[in-house]
């Protein structure tokens, strides 16, 4: 049927339903009377003739319902009719209506709020490039002598040599980056002296995360050399507050901890370090500097590094976990003491303590 006649038929169904029903009743009545007249001519009395005519039509009510169901918009018309009946019932019971309305509003509001939290915490990917390839690497110390002294912990920091072992011996990772939230950094130039929340990072740390500075660049390997100029990357908030958002701040030498450092980059406005809470790394740091050159050659007993790894494309977290476990076994044999590494998807590790309660609430 062409569009215009369909629209006209829909309008008649919705706006002139009573008139259509009257016309249908007239047509059915005429059909019954025609059939009844024929049965009377065949010798039936009028009452029996009408019953026979109704049977032959298949029942007047059934025919009426079938015709109504074939009308364009019949489903919508039935819904509107049900809606009118419901509204009349609610008007007759205002207190029940109020309770139902409040209950629905609270239920919808609570579900919306919980879904928003679940989406933000569990479903929405981390704000890093290809965040599903990021894993957090822990040193499991529950099987070492530290357990006997009460210092055993399954999610501990790592040492520089541990980072070297992961970098050189794993097969499922492209790179590893390390960070140490070292405390405060004294900024004594460009205004009033202040203490900044800072951290030391490996020169590839931001590359591993997949974060590109908004201005300037991230660290390079030469920034960690002993005779190189100290480099520093600052956060967006510090860039606006201390340097007025001036792009010429890139390349400026400032005095940090009584030494001069060069600003080489400014992180994006929305950058946050979304690492596990027990990693003890604040989500908003103001300044970053590269580690000392011999980081990976330091004592293995110095445990302070928080390590993030970027898995190779197509690698699953289970494969990465097996890979670091094999490296653990090799290192353990070489050292003669237990060394156990474990890898957990960064997205899952950051919400591991709240995943169960959030899903239960949802």
What does this structure look like?
- By secondary structure, this protein is α+β, with helices and mostly antiparallel strands.
- 46% of the residues lie in helices and 18% in strands.
- The chain contains 13 helices and 10 strands.
- Strands 1, 2, 3, 4, 5, 6, 7, 8, 9 and 10 form a 10-stranded mixed beta sheet that branches.
- The longest helix has 30 residues, at 94-123.
- The radius of gyration is 38 Å and the shape is elongated.
- The protein starts with a helix and ends with a helix.
- The model has no long low-confidence stretch (mean pLDDT 81).
- Provide the β-strand percentage band: 15-25%
Low-confidence stretches: none
Q: Number of DSSP helices?
A: 13
Mean pLDDT: 81
Largest sheet: 10 strands, mixed
Please report the distance between the alpha carbons of the first and last residues. 47 Å
Helix content: 40-55%
Structural class: alpha+beta
Rg, nearest Å: 38 Å
In total, how many beta strands?
A: 10
Choose one word for the global shape: elongated
Order of helices and strands: HHHHHHEHHEEHEEHEEEEHEHH
